[in-house]
Design a protein that fits this description.
Blueprint lengths: L2 E10 L2 E10 L1 H36 L6 H32 L9 E3 H18 L3 E4 L6 E3 L2 H19 L4 E7 L11 E8 L21 H6 L6 H11 L3 E7 L3 E9 L6
Helix pairs in contact: 1-2, 2-6, 3-4, 4-6
Bound molecules: adenosine-5'-diphosphate (ADP).
Adenosine-5'-diphosphate binds next to helix 4 and helix 6.
């Protein structure tokens, strides 16, 4: 722990004396260290594709100027590096938006079955490319108080990860229960589970997965188009909804990401 000590004199009759203040500054120091790490990470993540782009532009202006095959190949790489920067900026904006919000303002109930259904519709082509089978039998009327765009983002990130990291031919099972069996939320809750049969995650990594830029395998994450921010965004959105994210995994068998959210109760 770190402390700040300040000294002062008191001379307000009848009180005379010396005042010594000890302030525990560990939390402040930790917060400012986290800010510095975050800025360093963002700079590094942006500089890598930028350096590649600059290199290819120079090559295209010089040695590869008249080489049609090289031009085609380099333009392809430049496009994917630019797309990587775009994804990073998009995720940074999402993160800053959810971080700057205290709590979601809730006016309407959100139907989780519909949200997951529409995410699956969007991700079907990606699942098809990976030969991945997704099973989801949507129950009706599982309602939670929340922001539908943000909850859509939660399930997009979780299902996209299950497809990306599950490996070829992986089977993904999504279940949705109107009554969570255990509820650490102390209010009636619902539970949505996204389970894959991929390689799983070593238990050592699990507590850190929702940190910004934390990846189990950085090279694989980048190759898959990951920014390292997906689960940080998921965690923030769920916290804003007063819910909980539970991650369980058995290496060699698969992983399960469970989203536990308070259930909608109609106003009197
Ligand atoms: P990324 O953009 O790298 O996918 P995330 O924050 O979404 O970042 O995930 C963090 C890390 O957690 C990933 O890099 C990956 O190593 C691991 N991970 C996430 N989901 C799964 C999964 N379903 N199976 C195995 N590993 C996963």
């Amino acid at each position: 722990n770190s402390f700040a000590v300040s000294l002062g004199f008191i001379d307000i009759p009848p009180t005379r004396g010396v005042l010594v203040c000890f302030e525990d500054t560990s939390e402040k120091q930790q917060a400012s260290q986290m800010r510095r790490d975050f800025v360093a990470n963002v700079s590094h993540e942006l500089r890598t594709p930028l350096t590649a782009l600059m290199g290819f532009i120079e090559t295209l202006q010089g040695p590869a100027r008249r080489d049609d095959v090289a031009i085609d190949r380099f333009l392809g790489i430049m496009q994917s590096e630019a797309a990587r920067m775009e994804r990073l900026v998009r995720d940074l904006l999402s993160l800053s938006r959810v971080e700057s919000e205290e709590r979601v303002r809730v006016k309407e109930p959100v139907d989780l079955g519909r949200i997951i259904g529409s995410v699956l519709h969007t991700l079907r082509p990606l699942a098809g490319e990976s030969g991945c089978e997704i099973v989801f039998d949507p129950p009706e009327g599982v309602l939670v108080p929340g922001n539908s765009d943000q909850l859509q983002q939660v399930f997009t990130n979780l299902i996209e990860n299950a497809i990306k990291y599950g490996g070829k031919g992986n089977a993904i099972t999504i279940t949705l229960d109107a009554a969570a069996p255990e509820t650490s939320l102390r209010v009636p809750a619902v539970i949505a589970r996204v389970a894959d049969q991929g390689p799983g995650i070593d238990p050592l990594h699990i507590p850190r997965l929702t940190e910004r830029f934390y990846r189990v395998d950085t090279h694989r994450s980048r190759e898959m188009g990951g920014t390292g921010l997906g689960l940080a965004i998921v965690k923030h959105i769920i916290n804003r909804h007063r819910g909980r994210l539970r991650i369980q995994s058995v290496p060699g068998q698969g992983s399960e990401f469970a989203v536990i959210l308070p259930r909608w109760s109609a106003p009197e």
